[in-house]
Amino acid sequence: MKKALLGLVILLAAGFTVLLVIPSPIDAAAYTPPTPPAMDGPYAVNHALDSATLLGQGEIFGAEDVDVDAFGRVYGATEDGRIVRVDQNGNISTMANTGGRPLGLHWDNHGNLIICDAFKGLLSLAPDGTLTTLLTEVDGQKLVFTDDLEIDQDGIIYFSDASIKYDQKHYMLDMLESRPWGRLIAYDPASGQAKTVLDNLYFANGVALSKDQDFVLVNETYRYQITRYWIRGPKQGQSEIFIDNLPGFPDGVSSSGRGTFWVALPTVRNPQADNLHPKPILKNLVAKLPSFFSPKPQPYGLILELDE
Q1: How much is the pTM?
Q2: 8-state DSSP, 43
Q3: Beta strands 66-68 and 182-188: pairing type?
Q4: What is the spatial distance between Cα 241 and Cα 1, in angstroms, rounded to a whole number?
Q5: Alpha helices, DSSP H only, in the chain?
């Protein structure tokens, strides 16, 4: 018994030593999150979503962004690379397969469905089903995690590259590292020119335009905040925090078309993650461990409506 116990101690000690010696896949920065807001007032629990209609239940997995065509058909992207369409009778059709991980979707003025694919870059699906790659790099930097988009009245595509360091399979490493690897990009299909308009974002996620199209929002998921970038008017080219200290991780954001935004938070704040953030050495250590040891999201999401 003593020999077995001694052997276990030696094994654990050896494992811990190896764990310390192995380089961490991240270079974590210290970050002290603000105290989460109380879950009352606008954030209070309600059951408004209990009556929501679930489209394609049991048949569509990993749906991220959605858009609707002129006939009221809903388009979405799935975790296996498909672009699917759900008609008003609930029938599901596969329109294309990007071979990657499609996320953001938006129709342009020519009937093309513009797609942000996390691995393939910025794509376009033509009405005849032809899939075209528009961009795979911007400003000499490869698109590592193409995420979400919005298109303005002039056809300019604003889209996010969530992280220029970590791809979609390693999004948890981006969260643990706590460095601003995200960027917001503007692309003009008419000229073929693309440029980064805002960088140093903490996981640039959902993108949405204001009603008057004078600013664009981009979610910074791992800072629990949303940033506003002015594209027209006296503040053109400037940015500021639109809202911060959200009760969860902001993911998608869409304009309602009437002066408000809908923001989807797939999960609430995680005390384990918030407690880890001020301790970069510990985060570097956690990043070496199997994903089982990483903070886990709670199965509790919210939808917020924010006034402009």
Answers
A1: 0.92
A2: G
A3: unpaired
A4: 61
A5: 2-21, 171-177, 271-276, 280-286
